[in-house]
Amino acid sequence: MTNGSDSTDLDLDEVRARYREERDKRLVEDRDRMLELTGDLAQYLEDPYTEAVAREPVTDDEVDAVIVGGGFGGLLQAAYLRKAGVKRIRLIERAGDVGGVWYWNRYPGAMCDVQSYIYLPMLEETGYVPTQKYSLQPEIYGYAKKLAEQFDVYPLALFQTAVTGAEWDEESARWTITTDRGDVLRTRYFLIANGSFTTLKLPSIPGIETFGGKMFHTSRWDYDYTGGSSDTPLTKLGDKKVAVIGTGATAIQVVPPVARAAEKLIVVQRTPSTVWWRGNGPTEPDWAETRTPGWQRIQRDNFTLLTAGIRQPVDLTRDGWTEAFQQLAGRPEFNELSPEERAAELEKIDLAWMEGIRARVDEIVKDKAKAEALKPYYRYNCKRPAFHDEYLDAFNRDNVDLVNAPGGIDRITEKGLVIDGVEYEVDCIVFATGFDSESPYTDRIGFDVIGREGQRLSKKWEDGFRTLHGAMTHGFPNFFFNPANNMQGTATVNLIHVLEDYAIHFSKVITELDRRGVRAFDPAQEEEDAWVERIMSTSRLSAAFLEQCTPGRWNNEGHLDDRSARNANYPNWNVPEFFKILDDWRDTSFKEQIDRQLQPS
Questions:
Q1: What's the mean pLDDT in 72-86?
Q2: Phi and psi of 138, rounded to 5°?
Q3: What region, left, alpha or beta, does residue 542 occupy, with left being phi > 0 and alpha being psi -120 to 50 degrees?
Q4: pLDDT at 122 over 60
Q5: Is the dihedral of CA 65, 69, 73, 75 positive or negative?
Q6: Closest of 426, 422, 435 to residue 215, by C-alpha
Q7: What's the whole-number average pLDDT of the chain?
Q8: Coil, strand, or helix at residue 404?
Q9: pLDDT(263) > 80
Q10: Under DSSP, is residue 355 helix (H, G, I), strand (E, B) or coil?
């Protein structure tokens, strides 16, 4: 499928004006204000999937590594540490099992939006064959459990457990980790893999506590109320009026099954997503036989480079993602242009692509008013693109209404939602409102980290992140963390690619420390300072683009500042280039620092 739009007949100034107009509609003060999930609202944090199990506190002074987080990030850290010979690994997870985002997000229609063959990690090692191009939640969750079993994570794992503190002891060169179950663990290495989708977000809408019907967040889906499951029909909504708040990646998947099941569905939209084709289907019967050794890394790197706008001789994935980014990458002759000229040409290509996205809405959605409201007016990379084969079609159903709310929801009443003065009565409100990516890091992970000389991570990072490679920080020895988005690390469409390469990096650092007999290591202050400056200087180059984007989590709701520049990713989404920097660092600066540390005083 090809987006064949042509920008030659489009007035660029006119489109820019429309983009600005749509952006300004959504610039609302305190738009990112969230509810504190305390008191009665703490129920939204409860685990509806696993019954609480009492246990005695654990005291363990012989831990080699503690990993916080049981999603793919934590599992990959455990897997690569295990492969490196680290024996006693304790994984701590708030949920009742591993899986992370795929444990919590069991909403109807939940599936990965990156092909399973490059999303599910370590397929060659496990020998697993995904059943579909884009796996549904039960399969992904099941695969996470398979990884935990294969790499022996379960015996020492602590589930339904939250870390309450972590403190470094210089004399013993150990971290002391405490939990809400009374556990006390002493470990040499401390790793955090909390993920980008950890703490659910509920918007602070006036009157939310007065609603008399059912309310829940998509990451705590109430199947007792709706019936069905993530991959079967919702059997109890036939007489229910349901409102889904949000039209991002989660809502794109939720809307079609709810539309098929509910008496009435009202989709409340702040900003429409770009929705291109997905093309899901079963894995070909001979798929496994066509693979050659090393295929997954080759295909994964190829996909990552293509979605970073870096042309490749061949497209090994051939999906909506790679089609879009190959178009948007421009042409080789653009390399001969000045930066300003190249930016202008790329803007024209972006406009043509977005015109194709908008034309697809007109082709699918029959109601002209709904179609116009569903058209996104912003540059393609302003928001994470979406791919789905049923979302737009859902708006052709008589029982589905779309309500635009660019300025937000006025209030919630006992009976429903008030938007622009109009009340919409509903029986159920589903919050597809995403996860907290704005709060301070230590608030998101739920505890503070105390390093050398009593330094608190919350204090060190109160004005923004200070890291080396988004993975370590000076003054906190033997401490490693997977960076969330905009945390001075790297990012790409396929998050698993980043998580696996960080896990490999951490395992190599730890292997070298053990081999050389180094008790404690943290990056040098000057090295950290240089990395922060590098991130800030490059992120300022993209600020002009982000400032023009529709408000969202990628541009601090349209209010960029110095903190935004500091809390940015390494530019260009070129993950192989980024991890080559880390490879070079391990071969040079890292070893030089170890040599100096081991020299007799």
A1: 98
A2: -60, -35
A3: alpha
A4: yes
A5: positive
A6: 426
A7: 92
A8: strand
A9: yes
A10: helix
Residue type at 402 in one-letter notation = L
| Structure-token match 């540059």, residue found | 379
Tell me what pLDDT residue 419 has.
96
Question: CA-to-CA distance for 106 and 48, rounded, in angstroms?
Answer: 11
**Domain boundaries defined on the chain:** 59-199+437-598
Hey, what are 454's tokens? Answer: 């009593």
Domain at 59-199+437-598, CATH from 3.60.110.10, 3.40.30.10, 3.50.50.60, 3.40.50.300: 3.50.50.60
The residues near 87 (Cβ < 8 Å, ≥ 6 apart) are 64
pLDDT of 493-547, one tens digit each? Answer: 999 999 999 999 999 999 999 999 999 999 999 999 999 999 998 876 676 777 8
- The angle that helices 495-516 and 72-83 make with each other, rounded to 10 degrees, is 30
Q: Write down the pLDDT at residue 567.
A: 86
The first and second tokens of residue 227, run together, are 């019936």
Q: What angle do CA 281, 109, 373 make, to 5 degrees?
A: 100
Model confidence pLDDT, tens digit, residues 354-372:
999 999 999 999 999 999 9
**C-alpha span between 433 and 33 (Å, rounded):** 12
Residue 166 pairs in a beta bridge with 177, 449
